[in-house]
Write a structure and sequence with these properties.
six-stranded antiparallel β-sheet; globular; NlpC/P60 domain-containing protein; thiol protease; hydrolase; protease; two-stranded antiparallel ribbon; 8 strands; alpha+beta; endopeptidase fold (from Nostoc punctiforme); cysteine-type peptidase activity; single chain; 6 helices
């Protein structure tokens, strides 16, 4: 028998296979459960910045926030947020009767002792222009919804705005990053110093 045949025959025989070694001790984790949990949490915390906010709000078109809001800016936003859940009502400008879009904006400013125009068309022309890429909290955001129709809301920070959408809906806070709003953004107006 040749060397190649003997080697092949030896390799396939049961006696030639190396014996598997096993311990009589059952396998178990060497790390205690509380420490294992702590290590998992640490790993998650280390991965969070690397994932860049995976699963967070849409960041396709980022609206950048500038410096921290002033007291007046924060007060306007707080007031607008108090109206969240109020019904849309054409011509409405207070929580008891509901709000149309410009009525909500007008009311939030009035509640803070500031006078601005009442209608969306006047709001879109008043104040002074603000950079829509870097709006400040409290800025008035105006959209062109149709060839004639305008819609306004209040920028609330982090790419969101508060507005009273339309009949059958309620005041809500919504992302400016949505394609619908990005494609209809007309102007941003600054009424605060």
């Amino acid at each position: 028998m040749s060397f190649a045949r003997r080697t092949a025959a030896h390799a396939h025989s049961p006696a030639a296979a190396p014996a598997m070694q096993t311990d009589d001790i059952p396998l178990r984790e060497t790390t205690p459960p509380p420490l294992r949990l702590l290590l998992c949490l640490l790993a998650c915390l280390c991965l969070t910045p690397a994932l860049g906010g995976c699963g967070s709000r849409n960041t396709a078109t980022v609206v950048q926030d500038g410096p921290l809001p002033t007291r007046q800016e924060a007060a306007i936003v707080r007031t607008a947020r108090k109206a969240i859940g109020a019904d849309y009502n054409y011509g409405g400008c207070n929580p008891a009767e509901g709000f149309d879009c410009s009525g909500l904006v007008w009311w939030a400013y009035q509640e803070n002792g500031l006078s601005i125009p009442r209608t969306t068309s006047a709001q879109s022309a008043g104040g002074r222009p603000a950079d829509c890429a870097y709006p400040r909290q409290g800025d008035v955001i105006v959209f062109r919804i149709s060839h004639k129709g305008l819609h306004s809301g209040i920028y609330s920070g982090n790419g969101y705005f508060v507005h009273s959408p339309k009949t059958g809906h309620v005041v809500r806070e919504e992302s400016l990053r949505k394609d619908y709003w990005q494609s209809r953004l007309l102007t941003c107006r600054r009424y605060l110093p």
